[in-house]
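Predict the 3D structure for this chain.
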Amino acid sequence: MKRILLLFAGLTASLTGLAQNTANRETKKPIVILITIDGFPARALNDPRLPMPTLRKLAANGAIAEAMQPINPTVTWPNHTALITGVNASQHDVMANGLITFPSDGAVPKIEPWVDKDKLVHARTLYEAAAEKGLTTGQVDWVAIYGAKGVQWQFGEKPDVQGVIPQELIAQGIVTSEQVEQFGEKSSAAWRDQIWTDAAVDILERHSPDLLLVHLLQTDSLQHQYGPLTPAAYLAYAYADRCVQRIVDAVAKIGALDRTTFILASDHGFATSTHTVHPNVALSNLGLLHKQDGHDVGEVWASPEGGSASIYIRDEKQRADLVPKLKSYFEEVSGVSHVYTNEEARAIGLPADTASDQAPQLYLTAAPDYAFGSGAEGQLTSSSAPRGQHGYLNSMPEMQALFVASGAAIKPGVHLGTISNLRVAPTIARILGVQLPDAKQPPLREILR
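Done. Predicted structure below.
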């Protein structure tokens, strides 16, 4: 009986979607599809051997930036949030791939990804602006979007097996209930990108959203493991290109190419490191972390994100004393490029610690070939095989990201220099006719028809 009810609900949603699809085609409303290729470095575009014919065709028929500067920190969730809000971390408050929480017993801070959007993102989003105007939104593997209002069609990073889109894929035999329930556990990065692309195609063909957000992830996973611009990375780029082609083909199939704009972007680039600095080892050596019941606890912790590390001093009474001492200490550590106090970090787009518990008291950035690790034991600095990293300052050339726009609303043959990713959201808002009054930079009017 439960399965019959689920199938009935899926059929009802599909019929509703098909009716809406037909209505949308008749009104000829603009469609925007934002596809992010996680970690795709802008410098890869300079290689004529880059195996991405779909990306190159879209760029040739539209607009392309030489590079797109991400926000700090150059991490996935903060920058995906910037792409759909037009504001940086100082306003949207996302500092990691989830909400940073601090256990009451002084244990290591945790990053909680599965929290409601309203607890994590403190800024107006494109999908909220679209919903206010009566537009519809779909999302596939988007981040910082759990429990968000204004998103009708979803197949998330952690999909709900009872959701409409998972049920439609199950009914088509594309995926099983068990595979959806164990989506992030018993699978591969390539398979997940395939299913996410299947979901995007399903949303387009059955529901015709006005705004579709799609996040492809395998490029990030393989570059972390093998490094950027390696043979493994190029295979990942090529596979992402194939996924993009399938989405373009789906738009063609429903006859909507004449009103669809494609935005292809990445959240950050990638660099290579062979040395790791462990700031929590330093905090342990300084007596700020200690063992309790076999675990490290303390009032001061470093939370590393590849090329950067945030240091949190939980006891506000100790901050005045510890901030200058720790700043001086870490400025002398080999591999640390710069140490920002919170006040200094506000100038590079981080939130104020007087307004947000996500804001660190000190922000460390790594020198080239170095990254930060999380361990609290062992050597302060260690060596390793080359690995891909991001999180470095957004001014670093290797961190620059991809931007391509093509389709109905875009002038062909436009070549941009370096742009900020804060211009993406207001550009999409302009195309859809919605408002993002808090966006910090203007839309890219020079690329719009």
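Residues 272-389 form a domain with the Gyrase A; domain 2 fold (CATH 3.30.1360).
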